[in-house]
Design a protein that fits this description.
3 domains; Growth Hormone, Chain: A; 22 helices; about 500 residues; globular; mainly alpha
Length: about 500
């Protein structure tokens, strides 16, 4: 029987998963797992053997449930969001993009563990070294390496978390954005006294000893990031993705990971190697010849375009991937436009921001960081609402983000701007939280890192266009900011067109 004649459901029926009386109860009753809703990809995008094996592994993880390992993983993957925010002030676009593509694709080739641990190490060690840079060229080079680490960390971490979380708790991927807010708050609280007390008042007569604030800041933020890596590497042991292991033909290792996961959570898993190899046997007519196991991930460690091509393999998947890249790119452009031009616009319109002190700036930043916490929690609740789901939440949050962005242009005082920005930041945190979740949920595990890397890169690359717009825009008007708001609303409308809705479905 050829693989083209077997769909994923039939492969499982051959094994008897829908009829065995001794199967765990959840195999028979969970709508998330046994119902048609599990099939996020109805257009033949996934290899049927891969899809069948992914179902088997998903069932085993669902049977184990949300336990200690997944909650620990929620924390250590959150370190990536946290570090990304505390080092964001020193990063720039191009190197971030290089890191996103390199490590995103790499985790689909080499596995999750290497990328998961190395990216945060690179960010921490080079962040520390940046504080001692003897020249601007040296500083730029070191910061570039920080960007390579941080840029790769975010796409990898979401892929890692989704590989182990039960389908019933996938909404937690949206709530991971809470670590963004905590990282931003940490960065503001650390920078506040350092920049205020250890910076030159003017460029003239500014010696190194008088301008150590930014160096102290880099030392501390780099040290925090390095410490987070140490926790990941020495205290928490990341298991390799069972779907990745099975995808490269290491079914026995995948089963071993499932049993280790169950043991860590105080559970027992009944999954066996025979169950996981059933799709291979069905494809090969009842036997699996040695050395001929069906591999669905990369067969070597070489970089190639296979994972990128896979994301455009069918019309439906190509449309989905293109839409996600467009949404990320448009929002990246809009955010850069807003952040670059709003201060100039308000100043040109006679806005008065108190005494212009660092106290006002950092006070406001701390308030805005705290606002993001309830936003992340609300996003996690909203994405599970019937008829709304991920796509609806993203569209609504984007629309409200754009509306509050328009409103900020009316500000004339620091408190007015803070008020409008509270609404803007609240809904933009929901928007980004859903965006960072829906992308990896839509991309299947075998291409998830690559897809995450492409979308993250699109956001940064489109952001480069903001200065180009500045060359032709009339900065004496609010046009750049209005364009930014309109772009965010437009990006939200694109979310409605996504052909896949992950709510109620298990990503494979």
């Amino acid at each position: 029987m050829s693989v083209n004649m077997i769909d994923a459901k039939n492969l499982l029926e051959i094994r008897g998963f829908y009829s065995l009386p001794h199967c765990p109860t959840y195999l028979q009753t969970s709508a998330l797992i046994t119902g048609p809703a599990i099939d996020l990809y109805e257009d033949g995008y996934n290899d049927p053997v891969y899809q069948a094996k992914a179902r088997i592994l998903n069932r085993a993880i669902q049977d184990i449930g949300m336990g200690r390992y997944q909650w620990y993983l929620f924390v250590v993957t959150g370190f990536g969001w946290f570090a990304g925010l505390i080092l964001t002030p020193v990063l720039r676009i191009s190197v971030f993009s290089v890191g996103a593509v390199f490590w995103g694709l790499g985790c689909d080739i080499w596995g999750r563990r290497w990328s998961f641990n190395i990216t945060l190490f690179i960010a921490g060690i080079f962040g520390l070294a940046s504080g001692g840079a003897p020249s601007f060229v040296a500083l730029a080079s070191l910061i570039a390496m920080v960007g390579v680490g941080v840029g790769g960390n975010l796409p990898v971490d979401s892929a890692v978390f989704l590989d182990f979380v039960p389908g019933s708790h996938q909404y937690l991927l949206t709530i991971l954005s809470i670590w963004w807010c905590l990282g931003q708050l940490m960065s503001s609280l650390v920078a506040w006294p350092l920049i205020a007390n250890y910076s030159c008042a003017s460029a003239s007569h500014c010696t190194r000893s008088d301008n150590m604030g930014w160096r102290y800041l880099l030392f501390i933020l780099g040290g925090i990031t390095f410490s987070l890596w140490a926790v990941r590497f020495f205290i928490f042991t990341l298991l390799e993705s069972p779907r990745f292991l099975s995808g490269i033909g290491r079914d026995a290792d995948a089963i071993e990971v499932i049993h280790k996961l169950a043991k860590f959570n105080g559970k027992i898993s009944l999954i066996t190697i025979e169950e996981l190899e059933a799709p291979d046997r069905a494809m090969s007519g009842g036997r699996t010849p040695p050395g001929e196991r069906h591999n669905m991930f990369s067969k070597s460690s070489k970089y190639d375009t296979g994972h990128i091509k896979a994301l455009f393999a069918t019309p439906k998947m190509a449309w989905s991937t293109s839409l996600l890249i467009a949404i990320w790119g448009v929002i990246g452009l809009a955010s850069t436009l807003y952040n670059n031009f709003l201060p100039y616009l308000l100043s040109s319109r006679g806005a008065v921001f108190g005494d212009g002190s660092l106290y006002i700036a950092y006070r406001n930043q701390a308030i805005l960081s705290v606002i993001g916490v309830p936003a992340a929690l609300l996003a996690g609740w909203a994405v599970e609402l019937p008829y709304i789901g991920r796509r609806g939440t993203l569209a609504i949050a984007s629309g409200l983000t754009g509306a509050f962005l328009f409103a900020t242009t009316t500000s004339r005082t620091s408190n007015q701007l803070l008020g409008w920005n509270c609404g803007y930041v609240f809904f933009s945190n929901i928007m980004y939280g859903v965006l960072y979740a829906i992308s990896p949920e839509i991309f299947p595990a075998k291409d998830r890192g690559t897809g995450n890397g492409l979308t993250s890169t699109a956001s940064r690359v489109f952001g480069v266009l903001a200065p180009v717009i500045a060359l032709y825009a009339n900065l004496a008007t609010a046009v750049p900011v209005y364009i930014a708001g309109a772009l965010i609303i437009f990006a939200g409308s694109l979310a409605i067109l996504l052909p896949y809705e992950p709510r109620g479905k298990v990503s494979i």
